[in-house]
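Service request form, structural biology core

Requester: graduate student, group of Dr. S.
Request type: structure prediction, single chain
Budget code: on file
Notes: please return the result as structure tokens.

Sequence provided:
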Amino acid sequence: MNNLIPITDIKGVGEKTAKAFEKLNIYTINDLIHYYPRDYEENISMKKISEVEINEICLIEGDVCELPQNIRKKNIVITKMKVRDETGQLYITWFRQPYMKNKFSINENVVLKGKVILKYGQLQMESPQIIRKDELLLQSTQQLLPIYPLIKELTLRNLTDFINQGLEYTKGQLKDYLPNEIKERYMLCEYNYALYQIHNPDDEFALEIAKKRLIFDEFLFFQLGLLMIKNECFVMDNQFQYKEESLVNKFLSQLPFNLTNAQTKVWEEIKGDLKGSLTMNRLVQGDVGSGKTIVAVLALLFAVENGYQGTMMAPTEVLAKQHYKSLTNLLEPLGIKVGILVGSMTKKQKLEMAAEIANGSIQIIIGTHAIIQDPIRFHNLSLVITDEQHRFGVKQREKLAGKGHHPHVLVMSATPIPRTLALIVYGDMDVSIIDELPPGRQIIKTYHVKSNYRERIYAFIEKEIELGRQCYIVCPAVEENEELEMESVIQYTDKIKKVINPSVRIEYLHGKMKAKEKNFFMESFSEGKIDILVSTTVIEVGVNVPNATIMVIENAERFGLAGLHQLRGRVGRGEHQSHCILITDSNADITKKRMKVLENNSDGFIISEYDLKLRGPGDAFGIKQHGLPEFKIGSIFENMDVLKETHILAKKINSEDDKLSSEKYKPLIELINRSFNQSISQISL
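Core staff response, request fulfilled:
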């Protein structure tokens, strides 16, 4: 069947609705039927208020007999109203949603869905879902109700109707890409059946069968695609001769510390790649403070000692300048010239630097991704080191190949994830892990408190600043959001300036600021010209401010464990004891468990294991890869067993037929190409 039939072929989808679908990246009928529900709800029948039972989730219909009122209790806004039907009355309560006060009018007829409890002798329904009449009609027809991610232009009723039209349009016509032997071995249902059941499940059992098939497909095609990318794009002959290492050994002997066992093991793996027959394409994972940078320095020094250039790319100018400063201090005493190339340099400075890079007088080049773009020409580049945000792919390789190079690539990641998961998710790369911290590394004292501790926190911050220290405060939002009641960077900064000693220098930083402005404030903080930096998560991973000893994180429940651990790693980089304070008023059990994990653990790999167990679907470890498909239905955390199963199968298929050219695997190529949105040979990682 033609997979490119436009969405406008669906009855009722005009130009305006098609524009709305574009926001969901839905352009064709094929896109539409692969827009999966995010959840399912059991169909619940309507009840009279007198019939409801305590702790039961139910639907009730009634009239608003008392308008909503906002009541403030211990810094929490509670909104209450009363509804009634001919059999009784029920109190409705919302927490931290003050805007609900203006949503209703007296005598308005409403349909509400929620859990009924008995509180203070009154029947109450807490934080109910407001059901529209068209959704109510939908509820009466199915046993399990699919719940889709929605946008304001599309109602659940409309979207469900459009998807069902799409399923009818394609009924029985979609190609089943898996060979029968694989379906039989892994007990997988037929593809058309799975697609229909995911949207209209007959029952829980049918839904599980459908999910298993679609998750299996998604993981298998993803991993086969990665293996094909590795085979076709990254398996190249090593064009560089790496032999001499006396300078590297001299450098190691002069270091004021010994490498940890983990650092030594990873360095040997990198050295083996550089001396080997194939070009290196390796990921080095290491927790905050594990010493990844010194391993990168050894690799760069090894390149220079053997007559080549090396480059290290950073995601921001601030981080690039920091790397430049530390590498200059380490390597210039050895007679090695380090240069920097960033956007804020003048045109004249860039041209001078470009000339020195081209003639080889600059041996190590530090900068942002601009260093691999035109008009930069390298004299003899053999090694590119990037951070995880700069996955270095085919398009970039082609740029360098056009300049006569096929360099080794080393990607440094400060996002620890379990080794098994890393080997699967980074299937196109070899993976090294530094899972040991250098001796003497200070443990950051971590505390989980409620917002009523703020006064004490501010007093503690002032005391640390008097001692010459600095502080980060991280908020989840840029501007105030009444609906979510999140602490915001701009309003928070205004508030804190009113309660902190006026002599304390406070500034804010967020992602909506221009790059030049962000760089200015980040550099000012690095140089000690700002005492408190209020920021979103834009504060860079890796930025080193040894004088910063306090990290305060507002609304900590809104961040993943790995994200909180990364933020905590911005402090504890100097000689002074550092502290991380997690502020949240959430009483949810899952929040308490997650905060306790951080209070009791400082090892990022252990924390990542907990994140795996506690956090549901989503990109918990920040491992979305540019240019690769995102999972629509599978969760690499919840569905780890299927992920491992498909990993083994993908490697088996790849070893049998790495081009998937045999008749039984040919159909897979079409779907893999579609999953990756382009042919494998064009993928940029």
